[in-house]
Amino acid sequence: MFDTTKRLFELRDNRKMNTNQFAIFTGVSQSYLSQIERGERKASLKTIEKVCKACNISLSEFFAGSDNPANIEASVLSKEREGLLERVEKLKTELDEIQKKLE
Predict the structure, then answer these.
(1) CATH superfamily placement of domain 4-102
(2) What is this structure's pTM?
């Protein structure tokens, strides 16, 4: 039988993240992830889908146990890119406000 708990831990561990970092990375609450890893709760399909999306893997790869280094790097870079794009948008808005004040 497939062990979802072990698989979630592997995905987190492969990325060298603690549960708090993995929670932020995946958008799943830290307490829920911890409860899953301790076997106190079962992961919902919605949670598994969030983890897969963040880790840049398909559901079939999740259940097959496939997590190659390219997926790890791509998922981390994707999140970093997302953060940078958000920061650029914020800076752009701030710059627009400053330019309006100067006019």
Answers:
(1) lambda repressor-like DNA-binding domains (1.10.260.40)
(2) 0.61
